[in-house]
Amino acid sequence: MSDDHTQVQEFFTARAADWDTRFPDDGPAYRAAIAELALSPGSAVLDAGCGTGRALLALRDAVGPTGAVLGADLTPAMLEAATRAGRDPAGQLLLADVTRLPVRTQSLDAVFGAGLISHLPDPAENLRELRRVVRPGGLLALFHPIGRAALAARQGRQITPDDLRAEANLGPLLAASGWLMTSYVDEDARFLALAVRQD
What we know:
transferase, methyltransferase, Methyltransf_11, 199 residues
């Protein structure tokens, strides 16, 4: 994906209206990934690049009524689709660039990013921004409801050695950004990398 925010917005604007109908069976995978974060009631969590808000309900269930759920996305049409789908009561939707978040430093317990990393213009710097908003010891989940090989096959392409989501690339990238990868799963049905913020 291009590092041009306008192109990212155009890509997702064109797909926002039917995004959920294109991927109707992803809900259980989202819930399972969020469960692995083991969020406590009352926690504060950000869905970075929330799109149509498919993670918001599961995040709200995880943190309970006393927790805080934010959903940030760069594309107005995706946030509008989240509202049309009735997901906005589960979390506060922010029209925001996840590379420059309007969120206080160390104010969150976790960040959840579904399909996020391939759309970051400067992954190392942008992961540092996600680190900034999370308290020491806080968590990051990089998720996709389909593994790397299955996604490449769906898109008719080959996985390349420079794929950011490859374990050999992602671990060092996270480490350079102040995160320690604690878990890595890449199977046909899901991709999930968990990391903890280092002091």
